[in-house]
Amino acid sequence: MAEFLTHPALGARHGFFTRRGGVSAGAYAALNCGPRSADDPAHVAENRARAARALGAAPERLVGLRQVHGPVVVEAEPGWSDPPEADALVTNRPGLLLGIVTADCAPVLFADAEAGVIGAAHAGWRGAVAGVLEATVAAMERLGARRGRIAAVIGPCIAQASYEVRADLREAVGDGRFFAPGRDAAHFQFDLAAYCAHRLAGIGRVEALGLDTLAEEARFFSHRRRTLAGGGPLGHQLSAIML
Fold it and tell me: Could you read off the pLDDT of 197-213 as tens digits, one per residue?
C-alpha cells in the first residue's frame, strides 16, 4: 500500500506520499514517482498508479508537469501526452488528481474547499524566490477561489538543521530572518518551509508538516543526502490533491 500523510486543513482528498509502498528497487526503493529519473519506467508508472489509487483516483487522472524550478503555473488538463514545463498547477475540475514530485524541495498543496478549487506547487528556493507560491494563489483566484479561504499545507522538505547554504543563496533570498548561523561565516542554515509560509502570508491558513526529508532516509528521498553521499540515483516522492 502506498503510504501517504495528510493534514485536515485542506478539506480535499490529498496525500503527501513517502517512499514506502512501491515496486522500485535499489536506490529508488520503493515508491519512486519521478518520471524523469533513470528508474525503470514501468516501475515509475506502477508507483504513480498505486499512489493515484490510494487516493481513490484512476491512474490516468493523475496530472503532472516537467518541473523546472520556476514560477510558471498552469491550469491542469486531463490526458497530457507531453506535460508542460511549469512548477504548479491548479484546477476546479472534480476527479483530476494534481501531482508534483520533490526530493527536498517543498511540496505545497492548496485548497479553497468552498469554491472547489485546488492547486499543487513545487517550491524549491529558486521557485519560491521567483514567486511560484503567490502565482499559484493568483491562478486559483482566477478559477473562483478567494484568498481568505485558501488553505495551504507545506509537506515534507529539507529542514533548516539539514539545509546548509552559502552566502549567495542568502543574498538571493534577501531576507536574513530565514537563516541561522552556520559552521563558519561563509555558511548558513536556511529554513525553506518558514520562507514558503512567509511567501503565503495573507491567505486563509498556512500549515507545515514539519518533516525533514534529509534526516528521515527510511521515509523520504533527498537530493542533498544523495549529494553528500557522492551522487548516484535519485528518486522522488509524490504529493497530490483532488476534488
Answer: 999 999 999 999 999 99
| Three-state secondary structure string covering the chain | CCCEECCCCCCCEEEEECCCCCCCCHHHCCCCCCCCCCCCHHHHHHHHHHHHHHCCCCHHHEECCECCCCCCEEECCCCCCCCCECCEEEECCCCCEEEEEECCCEEEEEEECCCCEEEEEEECHHHHHHCHHHHHHHHHHHCCCCHHHCEEEECCECCHHHCEEEHHHHHHHCCHHHEEECCCCCEEEECHHHHHHHHCCCCCEEEECCCECCCCCCCCCCHHHHHHCCCCCCCCEEEEEEC
Q: What domain range includes position 203?
A: 4-242
CATH of the domain at 119: 3.60.140.10
Rounded mean pLDDT of the chain?
97
Residue 80 has a pLDDT of 84
pLDDT at 224: 97
Whole-model pTM? 0.98
Domain tally for the chain?
A: 1
Identify the pLDDT of residue 122.
98
Instruction: Give the per-residue pLDDT at 81.
Output: 80
Q: d(Cα 125, Cα 192) in Å, to the nearest integer?
A: 7
Nearest to 101 by CA among 155, 21, 24, 164: 155
Q: Say which amino acid occupies 25.
A: A
Write the burial class of residue 156 (CB in 10 Å: 0-12 exposed, 13-18 middle, 19+ buried). Answer: buried
Q: Which residues in the chain show pLDDT less than 50?
A: none
Rounded CA gap, 221 and 234, in Å? Answer: 7
